[in-house]
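User: Sequence in, structure out. Go.
Assistant: Echoing your sequence, followed by the structure tokens.
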Amino acid sequence: MDLTEFLAVLALALGWLLFRIDRASRRRDELKNARTQLEGVRSTYELLDLYFTFDWDDKRATERADGLKTTLNAGSMEAIHPVTHVDSIRNLVASPYAGTLIDSDLVKTANEALWRIGVFNSYVDLHTQMLATHHPMLAAASQPEKDAIVDSMALEFKILHFAGVASPSALGGWYQRLKNEVSANLARLDCDLRWFPGAVYPRGEALLLVFGDVIALAAFVLALVFLVV
């Protein structure tokens, strides 16, 4: 092998090296972007904890409804605000890393969380409409009418908690699973980021890259041997 051929092989090897450096950099950016999306979900916990930390069985929901009856009979009202600012969960579900850097089970749980929050917000909307429509009528209503209105609003309030919230933080509940799976996914990404930059790839791509590394290294070594010989 003459010098020209050796330089051609060297150029190919250097080209592969530059490609690997660029791919490693892009892979590290992918890991960081996926981690940022997971941190976005974790940043919503402070808000979600206000709604979904407690579990509501039939007894507890009934007691909550009885408390609303007392409030309404005293001439007051109790409003509940819908859950907002869940865009980070939507972004996680729609992420280009869903199913790869973001675990498939977490994506399913995030989808369930969006559905559960939507159900809760529907009950909150119904409660708000009932307050706006019926609460002004209580002052002028007869006692039987007042009792009927209060009972219907208390029933809706019970359903809001028993079905709208249910038991999200109980063992296996969706909110508990969301938190656990986000933490596990973050731990895995942090582990990947501690490796040599870009050392962790999807299995199929990793095999191709290793194969390319072997070919480039073997070609360079053989060219060097032939040049010396």
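User: And one key feature?
Assistant: Residues 3-228 form one domain.
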